[in-house]
């Protein structure tokens, strides 16, 4: 840029006007500063220039022109600028015309399309109207025919009344539809125009920042453009509402509900809020509320039960012709020390170890033996009532035959009776094994007669129950026993269909260090194969390997075969039922449902009060202490009795919460649950298995064993009492009347009193009563008898008392003297 003379160097000095400014600093110092102000150059066209040259005023003063540019050059340049401008104007006009033509073309095409659609709609409607008309006529004709047959006025009236109303309704609908279409057309055209105008982003628009000088971001402009484009493309056309049938379980999470309706979560939440329910999308709502929402959104409700997921595994019904004979499953029961384990071992040793050349049998909870006559028998290697009942209580009745062991040198004992009852309750046939006949004092007949008292009439007593005399020690009678079992099983005609998806029951399960969760499953129906996908209790998996009772890997296991199953995702419990499913998703869904249901059940069992009550309690009494416990019992009846007794223990402050109650041995799962909740485990006539014992020791979980319910209840009561906060009890120890009030310097007001009742103690608490109303409660500052400070003043004596931090004492007031005592409370 050049200055006026075009020669001077750039800088402030040349074109600037200097000025002086005085600056003041602290301590009276000043400083003169020279300020230069740049003068603005103003170009004023000279009149003379207009006259000369080409007469173009914009040519300007040659003196002001950049050096070296001639008049001719200047004129040429200006002409070029003018030409460019006029070209721009022309181009703009052409563009506009083109755009207009394009818009008209688009409009025309849309109009054509709409006309076509309208035509189609009209045609459809006319067809429909025609059909309706025909239908009406048909009905009329029928009605007329009926009327002719039986001239009842009501019959003819109805179609006549229906006919006129149906036509206007149809016409109405058509008219409404036309109106709506017209509306849509106008809005769409308007939208398209707007879009063309506002949706286009020009450089000018972008730089000037749109309306009001507000600077818009490029993204905002793009969004706007996109919106406009969508609008122009038919965004204003109302989307047709899709009505869905929504499967509604007992409870559903809001977001899932929105998902199933294909609606926006925000809309669902809003609608819930309008109903007065302040929920978030992750909250669960009950089915009734969800139903209202579904209806509000115009969808159809299909109420389903969560348990429906289990239906897939109960669908298959076996046909009689598919059933094939299967081996019986036997459980050995009896009183302690009557020889159950010895008998099981004897059978196994006789038939398995001896039978298999060097065969190493492994304990998998069950084994199969083949009798001399070729019959296959499956024995459950978990003697005792616990295993039997735990299976039954979990819905898996695996046992077909019960072998009741009674020692010949003993008699029918309490657990023998219990075993009889279990077998009878399960409607399982019994075979009596009179054991220990090798013993000198053995008296098998006494056993037989004893059994009569319990309605077990053995064959020797002309009854139907088979009885076999055996000796587990020397093996006498074992074959007879096996034959008796085989015979019994023939009578039972046990059958299963090996050609279907397998179903079985877990006999034992544990977490194996090397192999992961392992379950011994007794197949009850179908055939389990390697690779099968299954659900078992709350777990699921895919069969990775099958191992039989001899420790061999097998490819498949048919009915009544016990196998170890590898490939589970967790450890199931004994008695859990295994079902093969077609897909993993199915298996997982069922397992998750069961796990949730079990958790809910546990929570419900523990919460004796409803949630509202619990919250009310918590408000009143900040902390309701809970004593969590786990109960495992030998039979369901005992477990239930204990749980009931536990629920009765407690009051508003303390409650016993039974986290879990079950039948059977204390397992690792129980220990895990107890550890998680800091609960002791109460075992009633059951013991912890070895792994559970180890885990409990490691994790410091207390396991207590009982055989008398009252002992258990007393212990829990004592423990719960420990949770009760001590009660503060007040004892009134004396009363005193204020006879006079003095003012003593240094002390303040002192009451001259007469102790009317009990004693006045310096350390005790005091209340000042005025007309039997407590006006102050506190402690004594001083207790004087005559001039001396004393610790105690007896009834009938006079004394001087002064309150700590309290002075408003009057003649005639009564002082109540009390002591506080902490009392340990116990639960009733
Ligand atoms: N003489 C003799 N002794 C036997 C016989 N059967 C078992 N016993 C003994 O009886 C005792 C108890 O046997 P177990 O097999 O442990 O009895 P159980 O019924 O399994 O006992 P629990 O597991 O405690 O319920 C052991 O000392 C055995 O050796 C038998 O047939 N003859």
Automatic annotation (TrEMBL):
SUPFAM superfamilies per record: Initiation factor IF2/eIF5b, domain 3, P-loop containing nucleoside triphosphate hydrolases, Translation proteins
Keyword Protein biosynthesis (UniProt): yes
Pfam families: EF-G_D2, GTP_EFTU, IF-2, IF2_assoc, IF2_N
Domain Tr-type G: residue ranges: 325-495
InterPro entries referenced in this protein's UniProt entry, alphabetically: EF-G-like_DII, IF2_assoc_dom_bac, IF2_II, IF2_N, P-loop_NTPase, Small_GTP-bd, T_Tr_GTP-bd_dom, TF_IF2_bacterial-like
Main location: cytoplasm
Positions bound to GTP: 334-341, 381-385, 435-438
Composition-biased stretches (Basic and acidic residues): 85-142, 174-197
Low complexity biased stretches: 143-173
Record keywords, A-Z: Cytoplasm, GTP-binding, Initiation factor, Nucleotide-binding, Protein biosynthesis
Chain intervals for the UniProt region annotation (Disordered): 1-241
Single Gene Ontology MF annotation: translation initiation factor activity
Compartmental location: Cytoplasm
Protein task: One of the essential components for the initiation of protein synthesis. Protects formylmethionyl-tRNA from spontaneous hydrolysis and promotes its binding to the 30S ribosomal subunits. Also involved in the hydrolysis of GTP during the formation of the 70S ribosomal complex.
Membership in a protein family: Belongs to the TRAFAC class translation factor GTPase superfamily. Classic translation factor GTPase family. IF-2 subfamily.
Protein name: Translation initiation factor IF-2
UniProt organism field: Pseudosulfitobacter koreensis
């Amino acid at each position: 840029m050049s200055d006026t003379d075009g020669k001077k160097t750039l800088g402030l000095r040349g074109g600037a006007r200097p000025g002086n400014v005085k600056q003041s600093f602290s301590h009276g110092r000043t400083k003169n500063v020279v300020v230069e102000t740049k003068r603005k150059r103003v170009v004023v066209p000279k009149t003379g220039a207009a006259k000369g040259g080409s007469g173009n005023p914009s040519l300007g003063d040659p003196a002001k022109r950049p050096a070296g540019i001639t008049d001719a050059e200047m004129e040429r340049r200006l002409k070029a600028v003018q030409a460019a401008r006029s070209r721009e104007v022309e181009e703009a006009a052409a563009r506009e015309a083109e755009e207009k033509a394009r818009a008209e073309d688009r409009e025309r095409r849309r109009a054509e399309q709409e006309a076509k659609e309208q035509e189609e709609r009209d045609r459809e409607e006319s067809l429909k109207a025609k059909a309706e008309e025909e239908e009406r006529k048909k009905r009329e004709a029928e009605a007329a025919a009926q009327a002719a047959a039986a001239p009842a006025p009501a019959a003819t009236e109805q179609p006549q009344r229906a006919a006129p109303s149906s036509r206007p309704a149809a016409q109405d609908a058509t008219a409404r539809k036309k109106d709506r279409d017209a509306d849509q057309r106008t809005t769409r055209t308007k939208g398209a125009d707007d879009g063309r105008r506002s949706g286009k982003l020009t450089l000018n628009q972008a730089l000037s920042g749109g309306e009001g000088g507000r600077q818009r971001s490029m993204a905002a402009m793009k969004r706007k453009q996109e919106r406009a484009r969508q609008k122009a493309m038919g965004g204003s056309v109302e989307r047709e509402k899709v009505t869905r049938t929504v499967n509604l379980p007992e409870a559903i999470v809001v977001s899932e509900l929105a998902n199933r309706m294909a609606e926006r979560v925000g809309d669902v939440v809003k609608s819930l809020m309008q109903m007065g329910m302040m929920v978030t999308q992750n909250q669960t709502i009950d089915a009734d509320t969800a139903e209202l929402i579904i209806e509000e959104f115009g969808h159809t409700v299909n109420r389903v039960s969560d348990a429906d997921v289990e239906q897939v595994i109960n669908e298959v019904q076996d046909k009689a012709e598919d059933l094939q004979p299967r081996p019986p499953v036997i459980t050995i029961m009896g009183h302690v020390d009557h020889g159950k384990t010895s008998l099981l071992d004897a059978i196994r040793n006789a038939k398995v170890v001896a039978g298999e050349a060097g065969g190493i049998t492994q304990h998998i909870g069950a084994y199969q033996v083949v009798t001399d006559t070729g019959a296959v028998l499956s024995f459950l290697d978990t003697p005792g009532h616990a295993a039997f009942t735990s299976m039954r209580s979990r819905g898996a009745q695996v046992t077909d035959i019960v072998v009741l062991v009674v020692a010949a040198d003993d008699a029918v004992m309490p657990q023998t009776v219990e075993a009889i009852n279990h077998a009878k309750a399960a409607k399982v046939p019994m075979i009596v094994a009179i054991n220990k006949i090798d013993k000198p004092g053995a008296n098998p007949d006494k056993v037989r007669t004893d059994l009569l008292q319990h309605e077990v009439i053995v064959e020797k007593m002309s009854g139907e129950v088979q009885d076999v005399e055996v000796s587990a020690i020397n093996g006498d009678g074992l074959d007879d026993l096996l034959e008796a079992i085989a015979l019994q099983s023939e009578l039972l005609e046990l059958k299963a269909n090996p050609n279907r998806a397998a179903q079985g029951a877990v006999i034992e399960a544990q977490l194996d260090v090397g192999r992961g969760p392992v379950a011994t499953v007794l197949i009850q129906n179908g055939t389990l194969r390697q690779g099968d996908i299954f659900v078992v209790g709350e777990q699921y998996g895919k069969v990775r390997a099958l191992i039989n009772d001899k420790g061999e890997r097998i490819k498949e296991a048919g009915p009544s075969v016990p196998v170890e199953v590898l490939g589970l995702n967790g450890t199931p419990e004994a008695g859990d039922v295994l079902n093969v499913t077609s897909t993993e998703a199915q298996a997982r869904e069922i397992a998750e449902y069961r796990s949730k249901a079990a958790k809910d059940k546990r929570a419900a069992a523990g919460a004796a009060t409803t949630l509202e009550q619990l919250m009310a309690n918590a408000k009143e009494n900040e902390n309701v202490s809970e004593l969590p416990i786990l109960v495992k019992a030998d039979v369901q009846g005992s477990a239930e009795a204990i749980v009931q007794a536990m629920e009765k223990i407690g009051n508003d402050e303390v409650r016993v919460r039974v986290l879990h109650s079950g039948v059977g041995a204390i397992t690792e799962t129980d220990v895990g649950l107890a550890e998680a909740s800091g609960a002791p485990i109460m075992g009633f006539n059951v013991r912890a298995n070895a792994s559970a014992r180890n885990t409990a020791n490691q994790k410091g979980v207390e396991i207590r064993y009982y055989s008398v319910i009252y002992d258990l209840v007393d212990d829990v009561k004592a423990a719960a009492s420990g949770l009760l906060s001590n009660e503060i009890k007040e004892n009134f120890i004396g009363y005193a009347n204020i006879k006079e009030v003095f003012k003593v310097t240094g002390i303040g007001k002192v009451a001259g009193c007469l102790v009317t009742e009990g004693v006045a103690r310096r350390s005790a608490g005091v209340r000042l009563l005025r007309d039997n109303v407590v006006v102050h409660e506190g402690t004594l500052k001083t207790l004087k008898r005559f001039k001396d400070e004393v610790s105690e003043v007896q009834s009938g004596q006079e004394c001087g008392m002064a309150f700590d931090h309290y002075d408003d004492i009057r003649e005639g007031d009564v002082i109540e003297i009390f002591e506080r005592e902490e009392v340990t409370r116990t639960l009733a």
